[in-house]
Here is the input.
Amino acid sequence: MILKPMVRNNICLNAHPEGCARETLRQIEYVKARAEAYSRLEGPKAVLVIGCSTGYGLASRIASAFGFRAPTVGVSFERSPSDTKTGTPGWYDNRAFDEATAAAGLSAISLDGDAFSKDMKARVIRAARDLGVKFDLVVYSLASPVRPDPETGELYKSVIKPLGGAYRGRNVDVFTGELSFAEVQPASEAEAAHTVKVMGGEDWELWINALREAGALAAGAKTVAYSYIGPELSWPIYRDGTIGAAKAHLEGSAKRLTASAPDGLSAYVSINKALVTRASAVIPVIPLYVSILFKVMKERGIHEDCVAQMDRLFRERLYLGASVRQAVPVDAEGRIRIDELEMGASVQAEVNSRLARISSDNLGELADLEGFRSDFLAIHGFGIEGVDYEAEVASR
Ligand SMILES: NC(=O)c1ccc[n+]([C@@H]2O[C@H](COP(=O)([O-])OP(=O)(O)OC[C@H]3O[C@@H](n4cnc5c(N)ncnc54)[C@H](O)[C@@H]3O)[C@@H](O)[C@H]2O)c1
Here is the structure.
């Protein structure tokens, strides 16, 4: 088949196998180019990445494997290709990662299935035994719309909604450039509770406890889960909304995990920068904010993509010295901050000033819609340099 992006309602329905592979290899090359800097640090010896196939999880796995040469086990939930339909981007990203680690002589096991299930936890524990490792770093990087309860089978669904009152904010359709106002009604109590069940820290705690009970967690291990704070204008729908409540629960989990660790485990939440992901084009306000943010950060030469963020997280926060025990720098609330360039006062002031002035006449000048679109297509393997998009490709 010949593959062109199939974008419907700001969701891309297909993926290009070679484009996804090349984009994964680009991230691997980014980390390999910093091998010398990694070699001066003591890093993790065996890493589990839950949510390993795309976004921050994939970049974390790449930093672990190609930066620190650690064996990795990765868990993700992706759709495999059929004769008529491509797989999801993460399916091809995993394959590219597996091929690259095999070629580099690095141990890696990638498991596909539901991370929330007891079965997946058992499969990971078996994988650790097969590799003969105990994990000394567990990265929790899931972004999921649903979670089946592992005990009852009840399906929890997460929503991105405000709490208390409706939210009205500026929005842009990144594909048409059309500006609009989006109004989102507040979540019900049940929706709020379900979102915490899906995106909060309950499953993270279950993972750590299951690994510990099975003897698959090393003494003095670290574990990190990812979160976002973002600008004040997004707080009603993000930080003070349903997702924010789930992320507050995640921060509580980090404290509980560290406090109750008999084996010296340290659990962290890392606040990362806003990125374009498969879901971000459909979250109200975020596309407009991110497009302006990218323009401002690119103009100032401080823009970072996913792998640049995770490379810094691994070398300048989690492992920053000759001993893995070197203290991890955190803010007053105990969180790792790798979003400091995005959240800098001058960047935020400039973004806010542009948001106040934005109109269809100056959109191209004040915001980087093209950058948003190209990042969005790139995570689906489209628009990647060197790929012949007129050529026939097999979906598998
Ligand atoms: N994207 C951002 O701008 C941003 C910013 C800061 C923090 N974060 C946080 O980083 C984390 C990862 O987000 P991302 O943007 O990298 O997401 P992503 O969609 O790129 O990746 C999500 C991963 O979770 C996996 N997954 C989803 N459901 C699963 C399931 N049931 N079982 C197994 N695997 C499953 C997917 O296969 C994929 O590997 C999230 O907690 C998110 O809130 C994201």
